[in-house]
Write a structure and sequence with these properties.
6 strands; 36% helix
């Protein structure tokens, strides 16, 4: 399988941007970003390629970010790494990964994920030139990879229909988490 070098920018709050180069399958670097976002096989390959890269740099990212939860200032127990693909820029492809520390509280993670969604929307809008029509192949929106809140599975997850902030791999896990999730779900429902 042919690979090509791609820059990964991990955006942290203490040390700025951590930059790494990784070889990824050339099939992921394509000018037709809009079509690839609708292709489940592309999404699966993207996730299986990027997850080990994010895992490899997780310790460095934890060190490069504040030790407090971004939502409540309690000690953080994990970081959320949210990738945003720029692989449609074929001559200089890169992936931005936004790093956010969170505590163990369900509502804090949901609040931070909601902030991440808003930030990604802003980034997409900022990269558009005002008054210029969207060019062919430019993504209409970004696809966030959300793991199942119960098992962590990332393939075929669906967002909560009400709050759209957490995801589940199926109805069983959504029902299993409902007792915890319902306390914060309605506050994020749009």
């Amino acid at each position: 399988m042919a690979t090509c070098p791609v820059r990964f920018d991990f955006h942290t709050d203490l040390q700025g941007t951590l930059k790494y180069i990784h070889n990824v399958p050339c099939s992921l670097v394509t000018p037709d970003a809009e079509a690839t976002q609708r292709n489940p096989e592309y999404a699966k390959n993207f996730v299986s390629t990027i997850q080990p890269i994010m895992k490899e740099h997780e310790a460095a990212c934890r060190t490069a970010t504040v030790p407090e939860c971004q939502s409540c200032d309690s000690p953080s127990v994990k970081i959320l790494q949210t990738p945003m693909s720029w692989l449609h820029i074929v001559d200089k492809p890169f992936v931005s990964v936004y790093v956010h520390p969170v505590c163990n509280k369900n509502e804090c993670e949901i609040r931070v994920r909601h902030q991440i969604q808003n930030m990604i929307t802003e980034v997409i809008e900022e990269t558009r030139i005002p008054g210029v029509k969207r060019i062919a192949g430019e993504p209409e929106n970004s696809v966030e990879i959300l793991p199942c809140k119960v098992c962590g599975e990332t393939e075929k997850t669906m967002r909560c229909a009400r709050c759209k902030v957490v995801a589940y791999c199926g109805k069983e896990h959504q029902k299993a988490d409902w007792k915890m999730h319902k306390r914060v779900c309605t506050s994020f429902a749009g």
